[in-house]
Write a structure and sequence with these properties.
mainly alpha; 2 strands
């Protein structure tokens, strides 16, 4: 019995370390935003997000025809019940795949030989739709919506890199 107790204690310490690591992945304002989102989605206020919470959230957004299988697939992305820590973990895993900001910035700099910090949106669109992992027109549209583009069509790629890696526009 004492061997089982020791195993459980070790597992609890590992679980505690894992959960504390997820909070260190985000800055405090980001955690607050995730908490607000979690609270909005947790429609029945039980501290967990389940299929019914997701269905109710979609309904509140006017989408009534979401299939149960889609909702179940969303819930299955978690390795357990979706409390706030698990919610953060899911987002951490999704965001973890992003390259560091300087790596993304250096990729853009290849197309900016004069180091102006801008690339024309048409040139970028052509590159992204015809090279390597081709972007769809919808993906391009989404990127341009969150990009700073001036009246001449120049895209501020430094700002875009910040948005990609931090999820929000940098305050000047």
């Amino acid at each position: 019995a004492s061997r089982k107790t020791k195993k459980k204690e070790g597992g609890a310490k590992r679980a505690q370390r894992a959960s504390s690591n997820v909070f260190s992945m985000f800055e405090q304002p980001q955690i607050q935003e995730f908490k607000e989102a979690f609270t909005l989605i947790d429609q029945n206020r039980d501290g967990f997000i389940d299929k019914e919470d997701l269905k109710d959230t979609y309904a509140s957004l006017g989408k009534l025809n979401v299939k149960d299988v889609e909702l179940e697939d969303m819930v299955k992305e978690a390795t357990g019940p979706i409390n706030f820590t698990m919610f953060l973990t899911l987002f951490g895993e999704k965001l973890h795949g992003t390259d560091p900001e300087d790596t993304i910035l250096n990729a853009f700099k290849m197309f900016d030989p004069d180091s102006k910090g801008f690339i024309h949106k048409d040139e970028l669109q052509e590159l992204l739709m015809k090279q390597a992992d081709k972007f769809s027109a919808e993906e391009i549209k989404q990127m341009f919506q969150s990009s700073n583009i001036d009246t001449t069509g120049q895209l501020d790629y430094k700002s875009l890199c910040y948005i990609i890696t931090h999820g929000e526009e940098q305050e000047e």
